[in-house]
Design goal:
This protein has 8 helices and 26 strands. By secondary structure, it is of the alpha+beta class. The chain folds into 4 domains: 153 residues, MoaB/Mog-like domain (Molybdenum Cofactor Biosythetic Enzyme, Chain A, 3-Layer(aba) Sandwich); 55 residues, Molybdopterin biosynthesis moea protein, domain 2, CATH 3.90.105.10; 89 residues, Molybdopterin biosynthesis moeA protein, domain 3 (Beta Complex), CATH 2.170.190.11; 73 residues, MoeA, C-terminal, domain IV (Beta-clip, Beta Barrel). The strands form 7 sheets. It has a 6-stranded mixed beta sheet with strand order 7-4-6-5-9-8, with no helix packed on it. It has a 6-stranded mixed beta sheet with strand order 14-13-15-19-18-16, with helices on both faces. The chain starts with 6 loop residues before the first helix and ends with a strand. The model has no long low-confidence stretch (mean pLDDT 94).
C-alpha cells in the first residue's frame, strides 16, 4: 500500500531545497508583459514632474477668475502660445494672462489652474471666462500619479499593462524579470513509434507559458529509465524545471520516476494526495525542480494546479493572479476520498437569477471532454469528502459561462 503525501508537505519539502539564485534578465518593456518582475522597482521621480492639464482649455491664474460668471465674465489676455500634450513651454503667466493648453500639457510658470474651453469664448487675442475656477482645478499636481519613492513593482509581481505604462512614464526602457526556463519530456514507446500522439504535452506547455515560464524544449523518450535519466541529466544543465509526462504510475511502469531516482535527488516525493493525479511526483535535483505528471490530461492538469502552482509561488515568490470565482449551486453531489484534495471539473451555467455547477466526471482522469465542455473547476479541501447536491460552492472559472 502506497503512503501518499499531503500537498502542503510535498510543496514544503521540495521547494525549500530549490535554488534561490534564479537568472534575472533585463527585458525591453514591449517584451515584458506577464513576465515575473525580478526586483523591487521604486519611482525615482515625481510623475507628472510639473502641474499637468486634465482638460482642454486655458492655463490661467485662479485669482484672475475669482469673480467670473456668465453675467460678468473675467477677461484674460491670450498669449501667443499653444501647449500640446506632454509639452512644456518656457513662458511665464502674469496677471490677467492665459495660454491655450491641451489635456496632458504642462502648465507654464505662474498658472495654477485650467479653465475648460467650453466655459469660455474667444475675442481676438482675449478670452472671456464665464465660470470661476479654483486653484488646481482641472490640474494634476506633480507626483499625483506617481510620487518619488512609490513602489511601482515588487519582486514576484506579474507585470501588467499598467505597470509598463508607469515604467515608461518614469523613463524606464527595460525591466528586470525572473527568467525561468522549462523543458518537457513525454515518455512512451507508443509515441516514439508514432502510434499515438502525446497531446497532454500541450496542456503542460500551455499551462507553463500561462504561468510565465519559458518552455524551451518538448522531447519524446522511450519507456526506458536509463535513457530518460540521460535525457533528464542533459536538460537539467539548461533548465530550471523539467516536467515528465507519463511513466509516473505507482507500480512497475514508473519509468520516469525511476529515472529521477537515478539522479539522486535531494528531495523526492512520489504519490501526492490529490484526486485525480495521485501519481504526481515532485523532486529537487541539484536545486532544479523536476515534476512527474500523469500522461492523462485531467490528472496532469490537477497536478499542475494543485501541486506545481504552490511550489512556483513559494520558490520563485511569484504572486499569480487568481482566477475569477463564482458561487454556484451543485446539480449533483461531488465525492472525494477523505484526505485527498479534489479537482472536480464542472460546467457553470445561469438559470433564472442564479448560477449552477454541473460536475463533469465522465471519462475519469483521462477525459479531455470534461475540460473542453467545462468552464471551471472546484477544489475540494482534504478534510472533507465532497459537497452535497444543492450546496453552494466556489468555482474557479476558466471559460465562458
Amino acid at each position: 500500500m502506497w503512503k501518499l503525501t499531503r500537498v502542503h508537505r510535498a510543496v514544503e519539502e521540495v521547494s525549500s531545497l530549490l535554488k534561490k539564485n534564479l537568472s534575472i534578465t533585463d527585458l525591453p518593456l514591449e517584451e515584458a508583459l506577464n513576465k515575473i518582475c525580478g526586483a523591487d522597482i521604486v519611482s525615482d521621480r515625481d510623475f507628472p514632474p510639473y502641474m499637468k492639464a486634465t482638460m482642454d482649455g486655458y492655463a490661467v491664474r485662479s485669482e484672475d477668475c475669482e469673480e467670473a460668471s456668465y453675467t460678468s465674465p473675467a477677461l484674460v489676455k491670450l498669449l501667443p502660445y499653444h501647449i500640446y500634450s506632454g509639452q512644456l513651454v518656457s513662458v511665464k503667466i502674469g496677471a490677467g494672462e492665459g495660454v491655450a493648453i491641451e489635456t496632458g500639457g504642462f502648465l507654464p510658470e505662474g498658472a495654477d489652474s485650467v479653465v475648460r474651453v467650453e466655459d469660455t469664448s474667444r475675442r481676438n487675442n482675449e478670452i472671456l471666462i464665464y465660470r470661476k475656477v479654483s486653484r488646481y482645478e482641472n490640474v494634476s499636481l506633480p507626483g499625483e500619479e506617481l510620487a518619488k519613492g512609490d513602489l511601482v513593482l515588487k519582486r514576484g509581481d506579474l507585470i501588467r499593462p499598467w505597470h509598463l505604462a508607469a515604467l515608461e512614464a518614469l523613463g524606464f526602457a527595460t525591466v528586470p524579470v525572473i527568467d525561468v526556463k522549462a523543458s518537457i519530456i513525454c515518455t512512451g514507446d507508443e509515441f516514439v513509434k508514432e502510434k499515438a500522439v502525446p497531446f497532454t504535452r500541450r496542456i503542460v506547455e500551455g499551462w507553463l507559458r500561462e504561468h510565465s515560464i519559458e518552455v524551451s524544449k518538448i522531447l519524446i523518450a522511450r519507456d526506458n529509465s536509463d535513457e530518460i535519466a540521460d535525457l533528464l541529466e542533459t536538460l537539467l544543465k539548461e533548465n530550471d524545471i523539467v516536467v515528465l509526462c507519463g511513466g509516473s504510475s505507482l507500480g512497475s511502469k514508473d519509468y520516469s520516476v525511476r529515472a529521477v531516482r537515478k539522479l539522486e535527488p535531494e528531495a523526492h516525493v512520489h504519490g501526492i494526495a490529490i484526486q485525480p493525479g495521485k501519481t504526481t511526483a515532485l523532486s529537487s535535483v541539484r536545486g532544479r525542480l523536476v515534476v512527474n505528471l500523469s500522461g492523462l490530461p485531467v490528472a496532469a492538469l490537477a497536478g499542475l494546479e494543485l501541486v506545481v502552482k504552490p511550489v512556483l509561488e513559494k520558490w520563485i515568490g511569484v504572486e499569480y493572479l487568481p482566477r475569477p470565482i463564482i458561487k454556484a449551486k451543485l446539480t449533483k453531489r461531488i465525492t472525494v476520498k477523505l484526505g485527498f484534495m479534489g479537482f472536480v471539473r464542472v460546467r457553470v451555467f445561469r438559470r433564472n437569477s442564479g448560477f449552477y455547477a454541473e460536475p463533469l466526471t465522465v471519462g475519469g482522469s483521462g477525459s479531455l471532454r470534461s475540460l473542453v465542455l467545462g468552464n471551471g473547476f472546484v477544489v475540494v479541501p482534504e478534510d472533507i469528502e465532497g459537497y452535497d447536491e444543492g450546496e453552494v460552492v466556489g468555482v474557479e472559472v476558466y471559460g465562458k459561462i
